[in-house]
# Entry
Amino acid sequence: GDALTSTSMTYADDLLALAQSLPQQNTEAWARRSASTACYAVFHLIVETAVSSRGPKANLPAQNYARRMPTHTFLKATCGLLVPKPGQAAPIDAPKAWKEAGCSGSVAPAISGFAELVLALHAGRERADYDLANVFTVLDADLLQQQASEVFAVVRAGLPDPQWTLFLTTVLLGQRRAA
# Structure
């Protein structure tokens, strides 16, 4: 595929495969680890897609540097800009930086839906990693793996909307440049 739909992201694939194998241990600790690993797989897939969307691998030092720039906070903040807040009607206005880049109007439903899926996955990971007062089951881990697989499918297919490129760029630059 092209740079926006690359299928050569083996590290992310390996993480997702690892996440899918962990709950076979059938303990809560393994289920929690699986959920966290599935979220990391999605993070690395999105970052790698964002980096590879910036051009060919001719400048490997620059690409390696770019891979270290995004954080989970950047990704969550970017997704948070693209979904309606509680009580807010969809569609929502595009972020200011997107408007400055020529994107007028509102966030495309496909982009907003993708962002909601990523946010749901992150919320599940936070529950798995930090909510130790409540039981986290293999079924909970399976749900997060399914969400991760959905994200993989969307990223691999590529979203045809020009906002997809803006989303990937925003993930690389972080919210401070997107608001």
Q: What stands out?
A: Residues 1-7 have pLDDT under 50 and may be disordered. Residues 96 and 179 are 5 Å apart (CA to CA). The chain has eight helices and no strands. Residues 28-52 form the longest helix (25 residues).
